[in-house]
């Protein structure tokens, strides 16, 4: 996976932090300087943090576990939803429902309800519901899809969460902590980097900065998934080879027994 360069991050505005008056002192190790009242993030630390986070995400993906992407900020929604879909990971980009992870069984019931509505609506010949009822169901389904569509195929809790702007998504962070999940996040100068296991210091408001980091993370996940697939194919190949050898051995033993009997 090609790691974003210093210049690419610079061009994307990843180095721009918040106003000094909004800063979190715990971000001091990641701040390069102050310019015109704005903190400038050290992009060398950003690159180091991205690489560390990407390697960890790759390992999680290779193990077959899920990473949930969370970004409800307007400028990050489409970037994150498209990236998560590409690698088959769950995502939340509209609104974080309280208890989305800590009360997962209730959320699953809502997803099941959405799927049941889909079955009803997909039957165009159904005469058991009126046009008005169909319209009501469609509206309810769209409402559920908007909030839960990104986790519709999630059958169990993810192993980790990747969050754009941990300050904004503090509820998701709190739930991840309760469940001892791995946490990854883009951390701006107004946030506490200690809230996540793998903080990535960068501008979490600029769409280009978000896109650059999110794409790098998803590329790491893609590599992990590809390695998992190759390992599985190799194991299947070895298993087939072992079975074939056993069959040949059994056939040879049977032929030997037949010769002895004659």
Features:
Helix Hairpins; Rossmann fold; 5-stranded parallel β-sheet; alpha/beta; 2 domains; 3-stranded antiparallel β-sheet; 262 residues
List the helices and strands and how they pair.
Elements: H1 6-11, E1 16-19, E2 31-35, E3 38-41, H2 43-62, E4 67-70, H3 74-86, E5 91-92, H4 104-122, H5 131-148, E6 160-164, H6 170-178, E7 182-187, E8 198-201, H7 207-261
Parallel strand pairs: 4-5, 4-6, 6-7, 7-8
Antiparallel strand pairs: 1-3, 2-3
Helix pairs in contact: 2-7, 3-7, 4-5
How is this structure best described in words?
This protein has 262 residues and is α/β, with parallel strands linked by helices. It has two domains: 16-100 and 157-237, Glucose-6-phosphate isomerase like protein, domain 1 (Rossmann fold), CATH 3.40.50; 102-155, Helix Hairpins (Orthogonal Bundle). Helices cover 53% and strands 13% of the residues. The chain has seven helices and eight strands; from the N terminus they run H-E-E-E-H-E-H-E-H-H-E-H-E-E-H. The chain has a five-stranded parallel sheet, sandwiched between helices. It has a three-stranded antiparallel sheet with strand order 1-3-2. The mean pLDDT is 89.
In short:
With 262 residues, the chain is an alpha/beta fold.
Enumerate how many helices there are, as a single number: 7
The CATH architecture of the largest domain? 3-Layer(aba) Sandwich
E-strand count: 8
Enter the CATH topology name of the largest domain: Rossmann fold
First and last CA, distance:
65 Å
Q: How large is the radius of gyration?
A: 25 Å
User: What is the approximate shape?
Assistant: flat
Structural class: alpha/beta
- What low-confidence regions span 5 or more consecutive residues with pLDDT below 50? none
Q: What pattern of helices and strands is seen along the backbone?
A: HEEEHEHEHHEHEEH
Strand order of the largest sheet: 5-4-6-7-8
The name of the CATH superfamily of the largest domain reads: Glucose-6-phosphate isomerase like protein, domain 1
The CATH class label of the largest domain is: Alpha Beta
The pLDDT mean sits at 89
Helix content: 40-55%
What percentage of the residues does DSSP assign to strands (E)?
Answer: 5-15%
Largest sheet, strands/sense/barrel: 5 strands, parallel
Number of domains: 2
